[in-house]
Amino acid sequence: MNILIVDDDPMMRLGLTAALSQQTDFTLVGEATDGRQGIEQASALKPDIVLMDVGMPGIDGIKATQTLKAQFPDMRVVMLTSHTDETEIIAALSSGADAYCIKGTDVEALANTIRVAASGAVYLDPQIAQKVMQNLTPVRPKAEQSKGLLSDRELEVLHLIVEGMSNIEIGQKLYLSPNTVKTYVKGIMNKLVVSDRVQAAVAAVRRGLVD
């Protein structure tokens, strides 16, 4: 898979390049030093994965991710950052990021995160997941109302989205075609008034639709 690194720290870019180049299934196609350059490089190179820093001068990683996801919905974005502020985490996930990994993570863990994101699943670093869950108190009164909006099959699909399964994996689990799963996912997002799978998973937890 082709990877673009977007980070304003030259030493971080150098380290990531050296580490990820050892992975036989990765090809590093470019580097960018800020969000604006990252958008330009991603538009030109069309990488499978963008490894995106959050805190950068000018256009930060969150705004850059929003722009990329609007233009290239299938492009996968892995946030790699030292930022663990809850507000920033939620903002990053809401921007459409497919994974959130903390800087300092070992190479194998980062490589696996990239592979998970590339497969279509969502990944949160355990530290991040714990913080997110602590701030997602289920709103039980809305649960029955939301469940009434979703069919039994949509609830099944939603459960599997929260578990991090890709559309292909959901189809295999429920014996559905990829196009059928895509239709269900789109319907779920419309009914929950969210714009991506991560937001759907967050909404499911907040509303008590999943345990």
The largest pleated sheet is described as: 6 strands, parallel
Number of helices: 11
Strand order in the sheet with the most strands: 2-1-3-4-5-6
Helix proportion of residues, in percent?
Answer: 55-70%
The level 1 CATH classification of the largest domain is: Alpha Beta
CATH topology description of the largest domain: Rossmann fold
CATH superfamily of the largest domain: Response regulator
Q: How many structurally independent domains?
A: 2
CATH architecture of the largest domain: 3-Layer(aba) Sandwich
**How many E strands?**
6
Give unreliable regions as ranges. 138-143
The 3D shape can be described as globular
Give the percentage of residues in beta strands. Answer: 5-15%
Query: What is the typical, i.e. mean, pLDDT?
Result: 84
Q: How many whole angstroms does the radius of gyration measure?
A: 17 Å
The succession of helices and strands, N to C, reads: EHEHEHEHEHEHHHHHH
